[in-house]
Amino acid sequence: MQSFLILVVLLCLAFSIVARAAITLNCGENSVSVQWSEVVSQIDPFLLRLGSCPPSRASVNAQGSEAVFHAEFGACDIRRLVTMGGIVFETEITSVAETVSYPVACVFERPKEWSPPLYDPLAFQTYGQGGLAFHLTLMNDDFSGLATSTTFSLGSTIPISASVEQLGHQPLILFLDECWATTTPILSPESLIHPLITNSGCLVDSKKTNSRFLPRNQLSEIRLGLQAFRFATGQDIYLHCRLVAWDPQALDSSKKACQYDSASSQWVLLDDPSQSSLCSCCDTSCQGTKKREITAGSSAISMLGPLVITK
Q: Could you count the other beta carbons within 10 Å of the beta carbon of residue 83?
């Protein structure tokens, strides 16, 4: 992509809010950086999202509000479109609290020699880079649709779906590698943090609550029934989770979904209980091999919230 002529398209639209923000866009070869700033603050910059990703840095001070994003193409729900004249990477800056949208796009001139990749049956084990879109979604009780409320009573179940769209990839299995509940939309030293999933897929919350992974309907999705916990009751709570897509034929102790079975006092592997030995490290430290990992676009940190847990 080094020889591409970079054209930058930046369209700013706002619907119910009159947008006065200044936006600086820097399109790189494989990523984009965006700076959003507003002198007269109307929007909380901590609640802004570039696609599905929160800001890497945000601030509010006497000079105004600012949010800075850095994202690789293929992550954060950045879409790739191929046209006759160019290759377009596009998404939007939105807010989780306001009806506002700032469409952002990087347009690269398509090289004359470029052609769509052809399927080669001899290369089916070659893992593509990019082309994955990760999602973390709050669902209704039976997972038939999106949740209609973000408020949950203490002890009730919070249904969560994590999924990956596999655009041109071989079949992948999705894991929740790590999840934390915090009181802030951005992880910081000031955040109150409650671990939910740690140690590469160990649902540590299942040792003291009824939180459970649910049986899979498809490899590209994992469902979690999270028991509403006594953490920051009545406050806004945000879930930060690392989603990882992986080769389903290469599971190890670093790529797994494990939960604690109180009846047997053992950790159990969600996808194949006969291989629950992969979970034996959940109380110590889990490390696995890195072979066959998809090195680009294989993981993303997604944020869900704010949620409120009431007594």
A: 9
Start and end residues for every CATH 2.60.40.3210 domain found in the chain: 6-109
DSSP at 52: T
Q: Top-level CATH class of 6-109?
A: mainly beta
**Statement: residue 95 has pLDDT above 90:** no
Backbone angles phi, psi at 143, to 5 degrees: 60, 25
250 has a pLDDT exceeding 60: yes
Contacts of 19 (CB under 8 A, 6+ apart): 12, 13, 100, 102
pTM over 0.70, yes/no = no
CATH 2.60.40.4100 fits 130-310, yes or no: yes
Query: Count of CB atoms within 10 A of residue 18's CB?
Result: 8
Q: Which one has a higher pLDDT value, 167 or 136?
A: 136
Query: In this structure, what token pair is assigned to residue 185?
Result: 């939309």
